[in-house]
């Protein structure tokens, strides 16, 4: 049985379409019902996240809880932190 995970702030997602297909990102914010703002701390930093349609994202089961609470509280998140969290997630996937 395939589980569906909710797109939410702090959730790790993988791009299904576009130039960045296969890359992992973290959802920084939601933009309406159809879009999410995602960043990876490398090509797409927190200060200029990429706007992606939700249908172009594969939602993983991983939520970075520390990041989620910080983003919801409006605290600053650094790009190096995103890179570190995503690197740890990629290692776990392999």
Secondary-structure map:
Layout: E1 11-15, E2 24-31, E3 35-39, E4 50-53, E5 57-63, H1 65-72, H2 79-93
Antiparallel strand pairs: 1-2, 1-5, 2-3, 3-4
Report on this structure.
- By secondary structure, the protein is of the alpha+beta class.
- It has a single domain, classed as SH3 type barrels (Roll).
- The protein is 24% helix and 31% strand.
- It contains 2 helices and 5 strands, in the order βββββαα.
- The protein has helices spanning 65-72, 79-93; strands spanning 11-15, 24-31, 35-39, 50-53, 57-63.
- It has a 5-stranded antiparallel beta sheet with strand order 4-3-2-1-5, with helices on both faces.
- Strand 2 (24-31) and strand 3 form a beta hairpin.
- The longest helix has 15 residues, at 79-93.
- It is globular and about 30 Å long.
- The two termini are 22 Å apart.
- The model has no long low-confidence stretch (mean pLDDT 90).
Strand content: 25-35%
Q: Distance N terminus to C terminus?
A: 22 Å
Name the poorly predicted regions: none
Estimated radius of gyration: 12 Å
At the first level of CATH, the class is: Mainly Beta
Query: What structural category characterises the helix and strand content?
Result: alpha+beta
Largest sheet: 5 strands, antiparallel
**Strands side by side in the biggest sheet:** 4-3-2-1-5
Order of helices and strands: EEEEEHH
Q: Domains counted in the coordinates: how many?
A: 1
CATH-level-2 architecture: Roll
């Amino acid at each position: 049985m395939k589980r569906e995970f909710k797109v939410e702030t702090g959730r790790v997602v993988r791009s299904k379409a576009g130039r960045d297909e296969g890359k992992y990102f973290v959802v920084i914010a939601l933009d309406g019902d159809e879009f999410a703002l995602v960043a990876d701390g490398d090509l797409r930093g927190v200060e200029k996240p990429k706007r992606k349609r939700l249908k172009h994202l594969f939602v993983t089961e991983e939520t970075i809880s520390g990041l989620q609470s910080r983003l919801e509280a409006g605290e600053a998140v650094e790009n190096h932190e995103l890179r570190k969290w995503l690197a740890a997630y990629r290692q776990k996937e392999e």
